[in-house]
Amino acid sequence: MEELQLIEAFKTSPELIEKLLQFGTKKQYKSGSVILDENSYIRAIPIVVKGVLKVIRTEEDGREILLYYIKAGESCIMSFLGGIHNETSKVRAETEEDAEIFFIPIERVAMLLKEYPEWLNYIFKLYHKRFEELLEVVNAIAFKKVDERLLDLLQKKKNISSSNTLLITHEQLANELGTARVVVSRLLKQLEENGKVKLGRNKITLM
């Protein structure tokens, strides 16, 4: 599969790519599809081939917060750790846009770690990246105002979609920020008045 060959960590090991293709299965998903739910057992590790996943944590009171995005060529380190230890998932992963995902059965993952240093290096690099992203989330919640976090989130979505116009509701943004919809609506109105965004029906254009 061409997409796996483009992943930097795999380029030096055609044998690893061959094993991944041998063991894995590719599936296609529409935007908004849940590929891993909270409290479910992890049977396979996803590698995003095309599209973007978002990883979300839900609290007991129903509030949600966006933890990080998984882009093409990346995997979910939290599903990797949970799968290896036969634990249930602590997060939900769903598609931000239409996506193709390559799944490696969890029983094959440990074997790949032992036989292919490139696979271990790939996992460690992702772990480091996710750790830094989670620190950013903690810092944002602790030290940034909600309007700053909202603008940061809109900018991230703009970069991911490569479009200034985002098709998203105020409710979705509120869920990802872990705040109330009325708060997001008020802040978006202020951003529009300041000339930073233009609001439409279920869409936001960054100026």
Description:
With 207 residues, this protein is α+β, with helices and mostly antiparallel strands. It has two domains: 2-142, Sandwich (Jelly Rolls), CATH 2.60.120; 145-206, Orthogonal Bundle (Arc Repressor Mutant, subunit A), CATH 1.10.10. It contains eight helices and ten strands. The strands form three sheets. A four-stranded antiparallel beta sheet has the order 2-6-4-5, sandwiched between helices. Strands 1-7-3 form a three-stranded antiparallel beta sheet. A three-stranded antiparallel beta sheet has the order 8-10-9. Helix 4 crosses helix 5. It is elongated, with a radius of gyration of 18 Å. The mean pLDDT is 89.
Task: Give structural attributes.
207 residues, alpha+beta, Arc Repressor Mutant, subunit A, 2 domains, elongated
Number of E-state strands: 10
Helix run count? 8
Mean pLDDT: 89
Which structural class do the helices and strands define? alpha+beta
User: Biggest sheet, open or closed, and with what strands and sense?
Assistant: 4 strands, antiparallel
Identify the overall geometry.
Answer: elongated
Rg measurement, Å: 18 Å
- The side-by-side strand order for the widest beta sheet comes to 2-6-4-5
CATH class of the largest domain: Mainly Beta
What order do the SSEs take from the amino end to the carboxyl end, as H and E? HHEEEEEHEEHHHEHHEE
Measure the end-to-end span: 39 Å
CATH superfamily of the largest domain: Jelly Rolls
- Return the CATH architecture of the largest domain: Sandwich
